[in-house]
Amino acid sequence: MSNRVINWFRYASPQTFYPLAGKLIPWFWALAAIFGVAGLSIGFLLAPTDAQQGEGYRIIFLHVPASWMSMFIYLVMAFWAGTGLAFNTRLSGMMASALAPTGALFAFLSLWTGALWGKPMWGAWWVWDARLTSELILLFLYIGFIALQAAIDDPRRADKAGAILALVGVVNIPIIYFSVKWWNTLHQGASVSLTKAPSMAAMMLWGMLLCALACWMYSIAVALMRVRTIMLERERHTDWVRALLGERE
Amino acid sequence: MLVLIRAVIGRDLRLAMRRQADIVAATFFFIIVVSLFPLGVGPDADQLRKLAPGVLWVAALLATMLSLPRLFADDHRDGTLEQLALAPQPLGLIVFGKVIAHWLVAGLPLVLLAPVLGIQFDLANDALAVLTLSLLIGTPALSGIGAIGAALTLGVRGGGVLLSLLVLPLYVPVLIFGAGAVDATVSGLGPQAHLSLLGALALGGVFFAPWPTAAALRIALE
Amino acid sequence: MHWNSLGDFLAMGNHGLYVWGSVAVMALLMVAEPMLLRRGRKKLVARLKRQLRAERSEARAASEPLTTTRRSHG
Amino acid sequence: MLEASKLECVRGERRLFAGVSFRLDGGEMLYLQGRNGSGKTSLLRMLCGMTPAASGEIRWRGKPIRKLGEEFRSELCYLGHQNAIKEELTPLENLLSAARLAQEALDEDSALDALEQVGLHGREDLACRYLSQGQKRRAALARLVHEKRALWVLDEPYVALDTAAVDLVARLIGAHLQRGGLTVLTTHQSVAVPAGAVRELWLGTEEAGDARHALTEC
């Protein structure tokens, strides 16, 4: 048991994690490409037309994975933030900061694809649909997190402050989602929903899952890339970074 | 415990009384923002009635935001925050006292002004009453949640703007239930559901928010 | 295969603009992000190497006369 | 009673000191010296438990202060660089509210007495914003007159004070040490304290980033 804990902490040290991440990144890229090609070919080539929404529904193969990822990444970010606060490991804070921009990217993509889907379906680029509105607020939360970390010079303090914000955010997200939904039903907003409308044929579901997996692999690859950069920057005075840089000369 | 909380509230209220300009400024900000809206959207009474809850609530959020940066900044600057952090009680309790004091100074005036400003928007009596009640229940949550943001941005570059960026998204549920309560009254649905949810938020904001706030303050003091 | 021709595929049942607009932006951003990261990393590595070299040469330059003065004092 | 072992302080990218260890018992004073930026204030803040040490441990009565928390803070009196004086309040109000927040019993008579001792007689009811720098410092130091907590951590207590006030503070520290209290202080003025054993600790920075420190007993 104790052996295992030590092992985990060994991998949690930037020095060992850095080369490990470097080795893993190409694999995640390959997986992302495979899942992406498979998911998109099912979604765009094989899946039948939706009776209600025509071909426009194919946007869900992009929109739904992007929305899932944006929410999921926030959870993962909060998880890293929490472990960072609890165990005071350097890696945790770096992981949280590495994930935030990718999460924000997916939140933005979710809004973008949602708007492009909304125009033909609802006749408007933007509708105050509960999901879209929550997604917008999620994007604000990401931006707040990134801005807070950018504004604090000392990386350790930035990590801790960001961690508190991420945890407060994660407690608030369900409340925000619930309140927006409640608000939306009262005001009788959009009745067609992007995720519910097409009767999910098995093939569509497979396409969507594969696309989501591709996004997942992509996120891991990008987060690992970013965390490696953050590590170099923050640990530039340590011996291992010096050795690494010296080697490459 | 109660003695301590009372001492914190007493101190902060006394300080606020010695520096009344701050309270007055935030209160007038609220009045002016609310009064500008009819000038922007026109004097049509029907339209104003519809807009009133949202306008008053958004103005209340902004007025609260205005007074938040100073919640801890003054104590931080003159070193009293260090003393509070070193006091032999949980810092969360002290923050709790400060949140209550902030509400008394920044939130309560908004509640008292709301019925008067509501009249400008031609609200009916029952809607006025619910508006005031919703502000009374909801503004403590604004102080509580806002304290987290104030602590996180303490001593940070461009703290004021950053504070609004962090806190305003978290205010969304309060805004929805607060303004929704008035809407529900106007449309005849009854405000009970909204008000009880708002009450839950306020309880959460006032009793749970001081702990992350205290953690953020300790980080700022490192 | 669901489509009869490439034209059909591109038209997406008159929703081509919306569908391809989504695909294009998503693809663009998802390609741009790793590329920007790569570039940022390269810049960082170059900068850190520069700093390291500067430090080393400074240390070399500083260490020589310093030891002699110490010797003369001792 | 107060033990520090192998403390390390890192500020930003600079390591201010490392390997700082000392032990302080009842009736002893630690006189912390060093150049500007050598980490004196950081070390004091570490001793208070405000700044976590990059490595090393601080123990109070044998237990790490991290674990003691409130128990440790109830025996600690910290006087920082800043006076912790509210400009809007009078010296009397400042003193009373500080005591109340620290949950110390301080009645108005003792507070007035303390203010008189630090030479603020007649200014008890004047808002602190009208006081001079030295008077503000005196108002802050008035806390020490009736302070019974065991560990005093004072950051530059003599700054901005005239000689009479410096003597008074030295007397207060002496009386505190005689009661068996502990004091850690930094100062650039060397002031003799009438009673108690004095230890000195030098914090110095070298180019290599290592701290040179020496512990001498007088």
Structure in words:
Chain A: Its main location: membrane. The complex is a heterotetramer of chains A (249), B (222), C (74) and D (218). Chain A has helices at 2-11, 14-46, 60-87, 90-122, 130-151, 155-186, 202-234, 239-248. By secondary structure, chain A is mainly alpha-helical. Helices cover 86% and strands 0% of the residues of chain B. The longest helix of chain B is centred in the middle third of the chain and has 30 residues, at 91-120. Chain C is mostly helical and 74 residues long. Chain C has one domain (18-73). In chain C, 86% of the residues lie in helices and 0% in strands. Chain C has two helices and no strands. The termini of chain C are far apart. Chain D has two domains: 1-75 and 149-218, Rossmann fold; 83-148. The radius of gyration of chain D is 17 Å and the shape is globular. Chains in contact: A-B, A-C, B-D.
Helix percent band of chain A: over 70%
Query: So what's the overall shape of chain C?
Result: rod-shaped
* Proportion of strand residues of chain C: under 5%
Rounded average pLDDT of chain A:
84
Number of strands of chain A: 0
Count of spatially separate domains of chain C: 1
Structural class of chain A: mainly alpha
SSE succession of chain A = HHHHHHHH
- How many structural units, i.e. domains of chain A? 1
- Beta content of chain A comes to under 5%
Low-confidence stretches of chain A: none
Amino-to-carboxy terminus distance of chain C = 89 Å
Task: Tell me, briefly, the overall form of chain A.
Answer: flat
- The total count of helices of chain C amounts to 2
Q: Please state the CA-atom Rg of chain A, rounded to the nearest Å.
A: 20 Å
Structural class of chain C: mainly alpha
Main pleated-sheet profile of chain C: none
The number of helical runs of chain A is 8
The mean pLDDT of chain C is 78
What's this entry about, in short?
The complex is a heterotetramer of chains A (249), B (222), C (74) and D (218). Chain B has 222 residues and is mainly α. Helices cover 86% and strands 0% of the residues of chain B.
Question: What descriptive keywords fit this protein?
Answer:
heterotetramer, A: 249 residues, mainly alpha, B: 222 residues, 11 helices, 0% strand
Secondary-structure blueprint:
The complex is a heterotetramer of chains A (249), B (222), C (74) and D (218).
Chain A: H1 2-11, H2 14-46, H3 60-87, H4 90-122, H5 130-151, H6 155-186, H7 202-234, H8 239-248
Helix pairs in contact in A: 2-7, 3-4, 3-6, 3-7, 4-5, 4-6, 4-7, 5-6
Chain C: H1 6-11, H2 16-73
Chain D: E1 2-11, E2 14-24, E3 28-34, H1 40-48, E4 55-60, E5 63-64, H2 65-68, H3 70-73, E6 76-79, H4 91-101, H5 108-117, H6 133-141, E7 151-155, H7 163-178, E8 182-186, E9 197-205, E10 211-212, E11 215-217
Parallel strand pairs in D: 3-8, 3-9, 6-7, 7-8
Antiparallel strand pairs in D: 1-2, 1-4, 4-5, 9-10, 9-11
Transmembrane segments (chain B): 21-39, 51-72, 93-121, 127-154, 161-182, 194-221
Keywords (chain B): Cell inner membrane, Cell membrane, Cytochrome c-type biogenesis, Membrane, Transmembrane, Transmembrane helix, Transport
InterPro entries (chain B): Cyt_c_biogenesis_CcmB (IPR003544), Cyt_c_CcmB_bac (IPR026031)
